[in-house]
Amino acid sequence: MKILKTLSQLHTWLSQNPHPSFVPTMGALHAGHLSLVKKAKQSTKPVLVSVFVNPAQFGPDEDFQTYPRDEKKDAKLLESAGADAVWFPTEEDIYPDGKRPKILHLPDIFSELEGRERPGHFLGVAQVITRLFSLVKPSKAFFGQKDYQQTILMHWFVEELNIPTAIVICPIVREQNGLAMSSRNEYLSPQEREAAAVLSQSLFLAESAFKEGNTDIKYILSKARNLIKKQREVKKIDYLEIRDAGTLAPISKITRPAVILLVARIGKVRLLDNIILSRKYMK
Ligand code: AMP
Fold it and tell me: How does pLDDT run across 28-49, given as a tens digit for each residue?
């Protein structure tokens, strides 16, 4: 596996491996990230992974400074997952002279849900993706369903700008107790990590209510909310909503594929999870 540390190393590698399969990450890699690499390996193109903690997508009171970073460990994990190259850009590579790319106005939906809780977050994601995609020109790019609203942003982005990159969404990889894997799980104490299982359990409970034939959103959400309330480690629910799975528009009844989106705080850690509610996925 090649380790690329400069733009000129990246350009040289790309000249031999044009339009690769691309997995953008912020590092502190875990099995969720590696599942994206393994999926990317099924394509015919070489797999390039970027590791860049993007300052533009963090709010002023967020954890940009303390976000876990470990290049050596990440490179080892990527090599074992079969990546062909890893690229560690500097901030100057991505935002030369501190300049961030200008972004078209994002649709209003990106000011809701995560966008409401983290103002400016999706603008920052759009800025880094603009720069990464314009340098890498990937044929395919791989993202996790865990950041559901981000996957909607990626689809919007390539359509709006006519970018010839196929967006591939990969399922959520979970810890044994059901907790969605996340780099920020490292911040949890063992006790909090155990308690955090309630989040996915609440979503699975909501899913069972839906599978039993319930389509009323208030009813389905009350099932999930009541379970979460029993766990005292959950300090706050930032949001728990069911939205249209394709557009994220609010709905009151499930008549088309929907998604239940949950963000809750355990200790100081914000944890995201979601599950798609669709007849298509029913056994
Ligand atoms: P991040 O490093 O947090 O920016 O994540 C990089 C990519 O990995 C994003 O597309 C995430 O959605 C994806 N990802 C993170 N956690 C998981 C997970 N548990 N399962 C699948 N994909 C994930």
Answer: 999 999 999 999 999 999 999 9
Alpha-carbon distance of 182 to 68, in angstroms, equals 11
Centroid of ligand 1 to alpha carbon of 205 (angstroms): 24
Residue 79 structure tokens: 């090599």
HEC profile of 103-162: CCCCCHHHHCCHHHHCCCHHHHHHHHHHHHHHHHCCCEEEEECCCHHHHHHHHHHHHHCC
Residue 206 burial (C-beta neighbours within 10 Å; 0-12, 13-18, 19+): buried
The torsion angle over the Cα atoms of residues 276, 199, 149 and 166, rounded to 10 degrees, is -60
Please tell me the total number of residues recorded for the chain in this structure: 283
Please count the helices (runs of H) and the strands (runs of E) in the chain: 10, 9
Atom of ligand 1 nearest to the CA of 33: 8
Q: Provide φ and ψ at 249, rounded to 5°.
A: -70, 145
The protein residue with its alpha carbon nearest to ligand 1, atom 8, reads 33
Q: Please tell me the distance between residue 170's alpha carbon and the centre of ligand 1 in angstroms.
A: 9
Backbone phi and psi for residue 80, each to the nearest 5 degrees, phi listed first? -70, -25
Residue 34 CA: distances (Å) to CA of 39, 74, 82, 181, 281: 9, 10, 9, 11, 24
Ligand 1 centroid to Cα of residue 181, in Å, is 8
User: Which residue bears the tokens 């790019």?
Assistant: 141
Q: Which amino acid is at 212?
A: E
Backbone φ and ψ for 216, nearest 5 degrees, come out as -80, 125
Supply the residues annotated as catalytic.
33
Angle in degrees, CA 238, 240, 242, rounded to 5: 145
User: Is the CB of 151 within 6 Å of ligand 1?
Assistant: no
pLDDT at site 283 = 44
pLDDT at 124 over 90: yes
